[in-house]
Amino acid sequence: MRTPGTERPGELVASLKQFLNAQSVAPTKTVHCAECGSVLRYLPTQFWLEGCEEGWNIPLPYCPDCHPLFPVSGGTFIS
Ligand SMILES: [Zn+2]
User: Fold this and answer.
1) Is residue 5 part of a domain?
2) What per-residue confidence (pLDDT) applies to 59?
3) Quick check: is 14 in a domain?
4) How far is the CA of 58 from the centre of ligand 1 (A)?
5) Is the pLDDT of residue 79 over 50?
6) How much distance in Å is there from the Cα of 65 to the middle of ligand 1?
7) How many domains does the chain have?
8) From ligand 1's centre to the CA of 76, what distance in Å?
9) Residue 33 pLDDT > 70, yes or no?
10) 61 band by pLDDT with thresholds 50, 70 and 90
């Protein structure tokens, strides 16, 4: 008979926290897009883990020319 809730993924959450901590303090160097050579921009993205109150603000790199998916200039969206 199994009791639900006794096996908690504590180790997984711990390693996820480690990963997120490492990412949030990673140095933001100037990186160029491999496709077009444009300077990649960084989009601050909030991450939360379910069950954790703390969050992470991690800069995600993206190319404004190849992937203009984010409204970076006053909400302008190029389709
Ligand atoms: Zn590009």
Assistant:
1) no
2) 84
3) no
4) 21
5) no
6) 5
7) 1
8) 18
9) yes
10) confident
**Residue 75 is assigned to a structural domain of this protein:** no
Provide the domain limits for residue 50. Answer: 30-68
The partner residues of 43 in beta bridges, in order of sequence, read 60
Q: Is 51 left (phi over 0), alpha (psi -120 to 50) or beta?
A: left
Helix (H, G, I), strand (E, B) or coil at 18: helix
With H, G, I as helix, E, B as strand and everything else as coil, classify residue 62: strand
- What are the tokens at 43? 């989009």
Cα-Cα-Cα-Cα dihedral of 10, 12, 17, 23, to 10°? 180
**Is residue 54 domain-resident?**
yes
Tell me the CA–centroid distance for residue 43 and ligand 1, in Å. 15
pLDDT at residue 34 above 80? yes
- Using a cut of 0.85, tell me whether the model's pTM lies above it: no
β pairing state of 55-62 and 41-48: antiparallel
